[in-house]
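Fold sample X.
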Amino acid sequence: MGSITADWQLDFVAALQEKGIAFKEDNRQMLVLLDKGQVAVNMVSLQRDIDPEKLISLQTDYQKKNIYLVHLWEDIWKTRRNQVLGRIGSILGLNKTLHGRKAKVLVINQAEADRFLVENHLQASAKAKYKFALHIEGQMIAVALFSGGRPMTRIAPDYRSYELIRFASLIGFTVTGGFSKLLKHFINLVQPNDLMSYADKDWSLGNAYDLSGFKLVAASPAAGIWLNRTTLNRSFTHRLPAALQAGMKELNKEEQELYLLENDYIPVFNTGNLKYILYL
């Protein structure tokens, strides 16, 4: 396999072979090219000392060549294998099609949303005020989560902004019109002034938002994350376990980093987010 030698990388390319996904190795980079070179997966090992800006530049360079590049971290592959393969299949257009017009919109609870999203979304679930699903013949095929309203009095006294927190369809399926159907249902019900959402730059170019009328308004820089080496759970600093945060309280930044390393955490990062807003 040339430059691909790490066990987890070999496991990933073996999974591609098992799925019948053709690929070739790019010996200049730690990545594989799919779909006749139109999609690239950059495999990021935890042992490597990586500059976030290099990953961002790599993605930008490939985008200029009309190649869709995603960053696959070792821990994400090990913990979200099925979801990674599902996302790659979706990017490659390998999904089967379900028709959103045949689906019913139902309100679901947090537990139902969690079960679906843990199985079908790369970032699993999140807490949300509004939770909706599309059902066809009793089968849940897509889920969308929305936040409560945030007052934006600097714009107008009664202006409310909401967030689309999660959207996912059943792995292996594309629900045509499903995304817009859930959006329209929420908009008709809540009457927001705008709806914002974030696309993870590690995996998304924001195409679904562009097609649905969202406007790109900002791109955030890479964000540092702490990874527990035992559980492979990722946490932003402010969301680390309470006991760790208490131990860090009186420490300066360098001492905090050393403290976390001593507690079996290592630093990783994402390449930032694209912020989109749908003005209504």
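Fold sample Y, listed below.
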Amino acid sequence: MSTRDRQSRPRRSNHPEASYDEASRARYRVRASRPGGSGSGGADHGLAVTRRAFTALLGIVAARLVWLQLIDGPRLAAAAAEQTTNVATLRARRGTIYDRNGNVIAMSEDCKTVYANPSVVTDPSGVADVLVDELGGEKSAFMELLTKETTFVYLKRQVDTDVASRISERLSELELEGVYYLDDTKRVYPYGNVGAQVLGYVGTEGKGLSGLELYYDDVLTGTDGEMIMETGADGTPIAGGASSVTEAKDGTDLVISIDIDLQQACEEIIREAPETYDAASGSVMVTDPRTGEILAACSTPLPDFSNISDTMEELSLKLVSSAYEPGSVFKVLTTSIGFDLGLFNPDSVYTVPAAVLVGDDYVTDDDNRDYTEDMDVREMMRRSSNTAMSLLVQDVIGAQRFSEGVARYGIGSATGIDFPGETAGIVKSLDEYDGATAGSMAFGQAVSIPMVQLVRAYSAVANDGVPSTPHFLVSKGGEEASWPLGDPVISAEAADMETSVMRTVMEEGTGRNGQVEGYDVAGKTGTGEQASEEGGYGAYDFTASLCGFVNADSPEALVYVGLNHLPHLASASAAKVFHDVMAQTVSIMGVKPVS
């Protein structure tokens, strides 16, 4: 070994060697002094880590609680409530409708709504068999309802109480569960189909769908209540469980102007008239011209409450919703406008030619005379002369004054009748007149109106020149309705002259067949040609009418009768129907004869 090698070796210590135990302890001390060792410093660090982890976990839990309670809480609460409660509607009782004499003509009757909790129904087929027997319908439809994954389904609404009782008894005997019952109401009409057009009808949801039931729906309809029931997990109501009830508020009662006996009589008459006179349809309205109260109103075809699938034709009151050319009943307006202006009186005489040029066409009379004739205004109306009316408007009254007079009568404007679907008709304003307008309107052509406008116009003649608004409502909730009269459209003197002329029509002229023995009737017939789809007027296609009032010095009733699309003149058709309606009116309403 070289000297260099020996010098490079470490020198031995002069101390004795350490024992094994001492060496181990030394190594332990070295490890314990390092970070993470298991000495007292390492233990403190581990506890700190644990505390931090626990604190973080608590923070997460707290945040979740805040979310659930403050943010998502309402949704979860609502969802939980929905799963543990059932809400049932408590139907308000709809207001009763009375006729003018206090007869109940529309009312709500107690009935039941039948519903089920499919989660409780263990034998859907057995339950469905009972329902089909008692309620009718198809078993498959009930099976579909009874097997739905829900806790509430309607089976049928507005079930008669005795039928619901039978269902309950049969299901109980068969130990079939899951069918329940709620108190409900349904609309009934004690007089059946009488007045159906006027009253209208109510759907299963309790809303008026036509007639006065629709027009006064907001008044008749009450406010439904509700019952909230606590249920178990399967949806079954818990006996003694929490529940709340909001009581229903019933609707308001109405008294209307209809006399149900007169209404029935008018419907029977007008139902037969179209067949008797080959007409497509017919209409009747009876009013008190002093107030505008409608005593009866109907038009054919009449609806049937047992078949609510009727079209709008059956449900509509054509006197209000349909417009026609009125024909010669319009001559009352023409002559009264002249009387009011002081241009002539019933005894004023004019030379009337056989034909009068109106626009590009000549107007002639039904008698087909070929000579000129002197006539006073009374005779013009007695004969219902078209040529004379055209002459008066074109040569005496003038287009402007005539147009203004027609407007004062409210022709072309809604009457304000309390009934849905009123049309204003088609009436030209003065600036729309052509060469034929005034001369044609003079006898009721070139104008199309609902006949309720004519009824309002005639009420002015009957009422010293002051029109009344045709209406049904007399009172609601015991409070009398207010129906102010309109502004005068002609003077009282003009109304008296017109009434005198109308008496002559009924006594000696085209209205003779409408006269009622012992009574003073003033009226005017009308035969209006109907416009064809091809243009012009159809041959022998008329609207025949008669409108008049009884005991003319103090009128108590006004009657309008109209027959549509028939081949006969008014004197031979509508006048006879008018007689029958007026005779029933004076009898039922207690109008005394004058002689």
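Sample Y note: The two ends are 174 Å apart (CA to CA).
Also: The CA atoms of residues 468 and 484 lie 8 Å apart.
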